[in-house]
Amino acid sequence: MKRLLLLITVLFSLSFSLYAQQTDGVVLDAKGRVVPQKKMKSNYSKDAKFAFKTEGEYKKHEFGIYYGWASPFPIVGISAEILSLSLYKGDTRFSGTANLEYLYHVHRAVGLGISLTYEYGKNPKNADFHSHHHYITAMPTVKIYWIVHNNYALYSRFAVGATYITGKYNDTQENRWMCALQATTGFEAGNQTVRGFFEGGIGMQGLILVGIRTKF
Known about the structure:
The N and C termini lie far apart (73 Å). The chain folds into 2 domains: 2-38; 59-215, Porin, CATH 2.40.160. Helices cover 20% and strands 52% of the residues.
């Protein structure tokens, strides 16, 4: 029994010794001679080191300005005219959405912030009715990047908030609130500071969005 324990101890010590020698870059052959080894390259490439070095140096502030087409308001207005008059006369006019957005990037791929949207709609005086309304929307926003490159990126943006509607229908003043949301997928291209972008989706800001944003 003692011999067995002694043999196990010797084998364990020998194995540990060889492991330590290999991790130090030295390997011995069966006769105990050092076997020359090729120098191994570091697992960290220059790019990997650069990425690690700059992990916390990405630009965290983002400001964007953009224009949107086909928000729910003109779609509903035109649909109502078609249903009620059987023919769209083109009387209803909407400005399209003007949008401002600020995001703070809590991670290289995630930005949190708020977006503000304004739209104006009117129907000129005619034999039936006339109206004009202002649509003001504020929505907390999250932006998630799926593909990130030095010169372009693919992302999705989600926002939920409220819209304040004020205006007149004939001679009656109207003021009301309604829920607002926006969900889009976008593509942006440019440099690390300024990029143009295009988005497609659905919500208060429109079905199609085009604009420019800057990071600092």
